[in-house]
Amino acid sequence: MIIIMDEKASPDQIQSVVERLLDNGFDVHRSTGATQVVLGVVGDTHNVDLRDYEVMDGVHEAIRITDPVKLVSRTFKPENSIVKVGKVEFGGNKIAMVAGPCSVESRQQIKDIAAFVKKTGTHLLRGGAYKPRSSPYSFQGLGEEGLKYMREAADENGLAVVSEVMDRMDIIPALKYVDMIQVGARNMQNFALLKELGKLNKPILLKRGMSATLKELLQAAEYIMAGGNHDVVLCERGIRTFENYTRNTLDISAIPILKKLTHLPVISDPSHGTGIRDKVAPMARASVAAGADGLIIEVHYDPEKAMSDGAQTLYYEQYEQMLSELKIIATAVNRTL
Amino acid sequence: MNKKDINKIREQIDELDLKLLYLLNQRAELVVDLATIKHADGKKLFDPSREKDIFVRITEKNPGPLAPDAVVRLFERIIDESRRIERTEVYDRKKA
User: Searching chain A, which residue's CA lies closest to the CA of residue B83?
Assistant: First the structure.
């Protein structure tokens, strides 16, 4: 951490800052410049609230040089982490595909979609049973029954299952049915939930909050890892911007930035990221080109009749077409699909 | 200036560096002795008035060619490191 003093900071003001740093157990390296004094702070400053110093008289700015996160950081672990879910590996050379409906609607629906997913060579089935809908009057999901149908459908086709839990209460029932637990965008900063997930021996798919900075996403992942669960996959799913043509703005730049900052796998969700069916494939292609380790895509045999998010859900043939395009892009960036 | 001269000057610099090194360590030993007394008397590690006196003194006695702010900067670092050794060798240990 460094503290930059104001140009007009008095010697007394500088002294009080030095004194406070020393009282808090840090060593200080002063550097007196032509106009300003800079204080280099030596010690572990992870837990320091920069504002404590910024509010002091004569302080211009306090800047953290070290990462705000430890376990998540690439400084902590330089090589890519690989998270295994069934036959799927996130973070390896092969791009991991996840596909399925937005919601599990019935036993037959998820069975049909699981068979299609299997046929395309995708090994991880998505599907919502607990649905975080914006309106309380929208379809809320089938709950545990939905998870049961999904497990059956996945087992029949040799697939693994990822599904969202919204509440700590849902974790225990979900553990029986899912291979990977999803934390939705709306729960990214539900720290009580993250702490519970940190105690599990089950991979977590952590989605970026719709108004979360990348630093906040990494800190959310740190919560899970700090509890002992290191199998975390990050997911960019679009953020709120002033643009309202699309449902969200898929932040493609988040992918290379996260890949630089963290060793954790990073995937992209162009379905929620755009909210518009015909924009999903272009954004999926862009994500792979930008270095995504995987994609999570909503697919349904009849998107028009889907009980949730039909407008962003691909038809079967669109998903297959997209996969063939992605193969070419994967090759171009030295990956496989 | 030929190569012989350069080597000769470098040798002199090396010699001075060693002298500085010994002097700095000698100073550090005195600082630790002082810290032991300061700590026993319940005095704080940081003594801004004493630091100020040091800067005034060295600026006044500075023969040049180093500029006054240059010697202040050099002594700031010496004092920063002195404070560190006072803390690690005396204040932290007594605390533990």
Answer: A27
